[in-house]
Design a protein that fits this description.
167 residues; alpha+beta; five-stranded antiparallel beta sheet; three-stranded mixed beta sheet; 4 helices; 19% helix; elongated
Length: 167
């Protein structure tokens, strides 16, 4: 019902092809320690350069930290590759059409006028427009399968903390 802004790709500064982890190591007196690294050489060659990302997990310190860190790495990397975004004004009827909260919901965009924008998007924010008969929404390209796309036996890589050099 109003303006439509479309971003076709994520800025390079927000993309990653190698993710480093830092988490709290109980056996290191609860200091942050470097964790596993997820390096996708196929994405690096496609990007033409190394795009590093780091995830700090300051509150992860139990025995499942490494598994949890690797699962988060995989999801973070997959999300960093999705870059399309839409900001638009929609009819307030959209609020009645959804079954749950709008923020966090996935919406399918299907437009003949903007066919390059068609796809599945997650709503990240919304608010009423000035006249309260329409809403402004921000949609970011998403895939609900990213959250559940983890297969422990194949995705989890062995990891041990490097020994401390206290000399």
């Amino acid at each position: 019902t109003g303006p439509f802004d479309y971003r076709a790709a994520k800025p390079k500064r927000d993309m990653a092809n190698r993710i480093k982890m830092r988490f709290v190591a109980a056996d290191r007196e609860y200091q942050l320690a470097d964790g596993p690294v997820l390096d996708r050489t196929d994405l690096r060659s496609a990007d033409g350069e190394l795009l590093d990302g780091t995830i700090d997990l300051p509150f992860t310190m139990d025995t499942g930290a490494v598994t949890r860190a690797q699962r988060l790495q995989k999801a973070f990397l997959a999300n960093s590759r999705l870059g399309r975004q839409i900001s638009c004004r929609c009819d307030v009827v959209l609020l009645a059409e959804i079954e749950d909260e709008l923020v966090g919901s996935y919406l399918n965009v299907d437009s003949e006028l903007f066919a390059q924008a068609n796809g599945l998007y997650q709503c990240t924010q919304w608010g009423f427009a000035d006249n309260f008969s329409s809403i402004d929404i921000v949609l970011v390209e998403g895939a609900p399968s990213i959250e559940t796309d983890w297969n422990g036996p194949t995705d989890e890589k062995p990891f041990t903390l490097a020994s401390l050099d206290v000399s």
